[in-house]
Specification:
This protein is α/β, with parallel strands linked by helices. The chain is built from six helices and nine strands, in the order ββαββββαβαβαβαα. It has a single domain, classed as 3-Layer(aba) Sandwich (Rossmann fold). 40% of the residues are buried. The C terminus is likely disordered.
Length: 218
């Protein structure tokens, strides 16, 4: 469950996937694209070879009609196998996940192993993998070697999670992936947290507030 007190509610969202699939790029493009009421700086810790070692933190937030401050904390995990302990630590207490897959046909095995690692690590840190809000994004759609979209859709058609396609370097599909996760997050937590009943915020208003869209619906 998200962290909550009398004045604020904080959700933790994690971008998970194999090394160099575009997790960090998604967060950097999101920071450029979004304009909620409250948007902090991106913090990055990197190794000497410029791969993400720990996480990127992208705090976002807005106020509900009730005055409740709703915040998001966005993280990425390191994709390298050697950092599995760090991945578990970052994944701990997550409220939602984006799995960023690499569309390159040569990366299919790495994608599968990373997805299984994510499922295993969710269980290890006490997350309910079968019910946690999750979106699957296939990034790098501009690669000549990308698996055709129709083939990806056919493989994932039985999966219960929203499926998105992106070219994160160009910002394509980044916001729509994020929106899909926000909607899944709202639907999963709204009743228990009284988001509509106590705080006057609908699913569309929740999404609009986080995206920084003007004329936020009630």
């Amino acid at each position: 469950m998200p962290d909550q007190d009398a004045t604020s509610l904080s959700f933790k969202l994690v971008y998970y996937g194999p090394a160099q699939s575009g997790k960090t790029t998604n967060l950097l493009r999101l920071h450029d694209l979004l304009s909620p009421e409250l948007k902090g700086e991106v913090m990055t810790m990197e190794t000497k070879d410029d791969r993400t070692l720990f996480f990127d933190l992208l705090p976002l937030g807005f106020r509900a009609p009730s005055g409740l401050l709703i915040k998001l904390r966005l993280f990425t995990v390191p994709g390298q196998v050697a950092h599995d302990g760090t991945r578990k630590a970052v994944l701990s207490r997550a409220d939602g996940i984006v799995f960023v897959a690499d569309s390159d046909s040569a990366q299919e095995t790495n994608n599968g192993e990373a997805f299984q690692s994510m499922a295993d690590n969710c269980h290890r840190v006490g997350l309910d993998f079968e019910h946690i809000p999750l979106v699957v994004q296939f990034n790098k759609r501009d690669l000549p070697s990308a698996v055709p979209e129709a083939e990806v859709r056919e493989r994932w058609e039985a999966a219960p999670w929203p499926l998105c396609f992106a070219v994160a370097l160009r910002g394509e599909g980044v916001a729509s992936t994020f929106e899909a996760l926000l909607r899944a997050l709202y639907r999963h937590h709204a009743e228990a947290l009284g988001l509509a009943r106590e705080h006057g915020i609908s699913e569309n208003a929740f999404v609009a507030g986080m995206l920084g869209q003007t004329g936020t619906p009630a």
